[in-house]
């Protein structure tokens, strides 16, 4: 099998915040910590970003050397260990560390944005138009963001929303769609193009090469993707690290 195309590698590097404590996985803390350590040692560790924890479980987690944590808080958490790099809150302002705010971009003060891209029921999934509007607004304001919820699969497709046998189904957003759209938004793509890209369900329409990504006549260089990831489209939280990788391997996009 071929190696990872450079443009795809630029899109995926340090992309996934591991959030195994949260639904639909909702694993126990010991299981989450064991899996995080395994992910850090795996051949795909280059795709792993931070461990997502609520502030109430931080002491129980006992962070180890080399861990990188993003911490969910309701307000200023006070002194924190060095492993905690970022905070996440529903407040619209920066706290004592770089902060992702689940608030409209126009309300955010000195912080990053956070967008919810899915949920456990069909009505929790935002439309492609809504995500495109968020990306266009955040890019125009030069506010970096992360995404959370619902991005278990690379490309937009109908899927069960939980792991239960009787799970509701809906068309889920794909993390490749969302972060490719974010990179295009950062470099000035029109809103209509962002909506169409987010609504794309054909994986083969995305052509990943060494020097560029091509999608239906639009192009971004690998350097442009790297720049957008560094300055704008930071990561997404997923309760599974294995599922995104398995899908990419099934599509022969990862070795």
CATH architecture label name: Alpha-Beta Barrel
According to CATH, the fold-level topology is TIM Barrel
**Rg over CA atoms:** 17 Å
* Span of the ends, CA to CA: 6 Å
Tally of extended strands? 13
Query: What average pLDDT do the residues reach?
Result: 96
- Stretches where pLDDT is under 50 for at least 5 consecutive residues are none
Helix content: 25-40%
Assigned CATH class: Alpha Beta
Shape: globular
Q: Describe the biggest sheet?
A: 8 strands, parallel, barrel
Topology readout:
Elements: H1 6-12, E1 16-18, H2 29-40, E2 48-54, H3 58-61, E3 69-72, E4 84-89, E5 99-101, E6 112-116, H4 128-141, E7 145-148, E8 157-160, E9 169-172, H5 175-186, H6 191-198, E10 206-208, E11 212-215, E12 218-221, H7 222-231, E13 233-238, H8 242-250
Parallel strand pairs: 1-2, 1-13, 2-3, 3-4, 4-5, 5-6, 6-7, 7-13
Antiparallel strand pairs: 8-9, 10-11, 11-12
Describe the model.
Helix 3 (58-61) links the parallel strand 2 (48-54) and strand 3. This protein has helices at 6-12, 29-40, 58-61, 128-141, 175-186, 191-198, 222-231, 242-250, and strands spanning 16-18, 48-54, 69-72, 84-89, 99-101, 112-116, 145-148, 157-160, 169-172, 206-208, 212-215, 218-221, 233-238. It has one domain (6-250): TIM Barrel. The chain is built from 8 helices and 13 strands. The longest helix has 14 residues, at 128-141. Strands 1-2-3-4-5-6-7-13 form an 8-stranded parallel barrel, surrounded by 4 helices. It is globular, with a radius of gyration of 17 Å. The chain is of the alpha/beta class.
